[in-house]
């Protein structure tokens, strides 16, 4: 309710009751919003896939102005939902989320007579890099029905969507998870009203985007996004500093520091060297290796094993995370492997996996899911910012999360 009030203050015309809220609170979510916002259009995201008439009737009777049916539902469901919408005086929006051929389906849905078509890329799909604007561009050339758009929109993509023909811009997380909802809504409103004045920045490479996001979020956010996996055990910050980069892995043996130092020459600027050395009592890393790493632009080092020359490495400032410190080192004997799959801090690490370190410790993100997990960590981060804001206003965490209600029974 509070978020809705603040979004309306920022210029939102419609209020969408999202599917998760409907699943949590049922039609009462619609009733409550209707009562609180008599002059706003209430959109019920029912995502109806069957019994179209019954679900539209439920939403209409609870006070919705527009009900959403899945575009991929059978034509019989869409048609009966439409009959019900006409009977109860509400409008029907068909949502193209997960439609196998959204352009073809949009043409069919228009012919069936829906009031709006929503070009929608779902939250999980956004996490793997899909966006709705390119599909919208194609669809707006083929249909005349009013188009809505949804799926991770921010002020830039909202402007692009309006330029591409969207008449209704549905924004979720970038308003509801903002720490200043009214300002976030105002920014979107401005882009929607004057889309031509918005500068559209090009996206960088996927690797740049991943690094940028991992620099912004914390290892705790990442671990949450990984459903509590990924955290190294027994590895702590020695020289503090945020560290992000793909792994160069080193397997070496007690009393032998040859491979750890050779790895510095193989690593590229921005890489993180991740070392497993069985011995916690003989150092495989020290001041000279640290200075060499700085010369090569390496982002940081993780060592399950021991580091020495602590005064020097602290002064040099390269982020180092380790399990132990000792004064003694071994010799360069040359056993071990560089860029083989290793285990470090009880986590499997492959060359190229993303390694992120901060004050809380180190997490390993498998390279094949790096983009998705970066995006999911960003969502966790947004959610936490929102919770911080709510706690600052005077609530407690358990009150805000309704912890008791959601405990497992
Ligand atoms: O419909 C939505 C989603 O499927 C969950 O119900 C969202 O409301 C819609 O995607 C807009 O939210 P964002 O993608 O966070 O902008």
Give start-end ranges of low-pLDDT stretches. Answer: none
The number of domains: 2
| CATH architecture assignment of the largest domain | Alpha-Beta Barrel
Task: Say how many strands there are.
Answer: 18
Question: Could you give a short account of the major beta sheet?
Answer: 9 strands, mixed
Class by helix and strand content?
alpha/beta
How many alpha or pi helices? 18
What is the CATH topology classification name of the largest domain? TIM Barrel
Indicate the radius of gyration in whole angstroms.
26 Å
Distance between the termini: 27 Å
Average pLDDT confidence is 96
Give the secondary structure arrangement, pairings included.
Layout: H1 2-9, E1 14-17, H2 19-25, H3 27-36, E2 41-48, H4 52-62, E3 66-70, H5 75-88, E4 91-95, H6 102-112, E5 116-120, H7 123-127, H8 132-140, E6 146-150, H9 155-163, E7 168-170, H10 173-176, H11 181-193, H12 206-216, H13 219-225, E8 236-239, E9 243-252, H14 258-266, E10 272-277, E11 283-285, H15 287-295, E12 300-307, H16 310-316, E13 320-325, E14 337-338, E15 342-344, E16 347-349, E17 354-358, E18 361-365, H17 370-392, H18 397-401
Parallel strand pairs: 1-2, 2-3, 3-4, 4-5, 5-6, 6-7, 9-10, 10-12, 11-12, 12-13
Antiparallel strand pairs: 8-13, 9-14, 9-17, 15-16, 17-18
Helix pairs in contact: 1-11, 4-5, 9-11, 12-17, 13-17, 15-16
Bound molecules: ligand LJD2ZHX5.
Ligand LJD2ZHX5 binds at residues 16, 18-20, 45, 122-123, 150-153, 170-174.
